[in-house]
Specification:
about 180 residues, alpha/beta, 8 helices, Rossmann fold, single chain, globular, binds shikimate-3-phosphate, P-loop_NTPase
């Protein structure tokens, strides 16, 4: 099952992606992880070394490669920052699922993890501004929005599977 997960940091893309990949027996292509495998550096280290722009270049290359492969693709929350990535994602022929949660529940997950450079360097107000700026971009690219509030990763994964199966058997109208 080929599917691409997008959404803000802390939306659960990686967790849900792992579950989905396991359930459907496909590889998980996690762009952050692929970047780390390629560079031997975490996103935090890359941001510190070559800045966000350098990270975004790498992310673009990795996304371009991942979409040519079969599997579950979990993207980084900033994938929509480059218009060339927006372009790539709007041209793919596989479902692009936007994992959407409330600001409150997303922030709750984010503050528990100090590894994200974007979160480390921003105040809550700045994160709220980033949230406001990014949300319409995810929504514009997604073929389907899945709401995640008060749901387990397993429930979200099952919803995605049902949606993708629905497209395959014609019970859900494709976009
Ligand atoms: C980023 C999100 C991160 C990672 C990097 C930048 C962002 O991925 O790609 O730290 O700009 O939102 P997650 O969405 O998996 O946290």
């Amino acid at each position: 099952m080929d599917v691409i997960l997008i959404g803000f940091m802390g939306a659960g893309k990686t967790t849900v992606g792992h579950l989905l990949a396991e359930k459907v027996g496909q590889p998980l292509l996690d762009t952050d992880q692929l970047i780390t495998e390629r560079t031997n550096q975490t996103p935090g280290e890359i941001f510190a070394d070559i800045g966000e722009a350098g990270f975004r270049d790498l992310e673009h290359t990795i996304l371009g490669e991942a979409i040519t492969e079969s599997g579950v693709i979990a993207t980084g929350g900033g994938i929509i920052e480059l218009s060339k990535n927006q372009q790539l994602l709007s041209e793919v022929t596989v479902p692009v699922i936007y994992l959407s949660g409330s600001f409150g529940q997303t922030m709750e997950r984010l503050v528990k993890d100090n590894s994200r450079p974007i979160v480390r360097n921003k105040s809550l107000l700045e994160l709220a501004e980033l949230w406001e700026a990014r949300l319409p971009k995810y929504a514009a690219i997604a073929t389907q929005t899945v709401y995640t509030d008060n749901k387990s990763a397993n429930q979200v994964a099952e919803e995605i599977i049902n949606y993708v199966k629905g497209i395959a058997d014609g019970t859900v109208k494709d976009w």
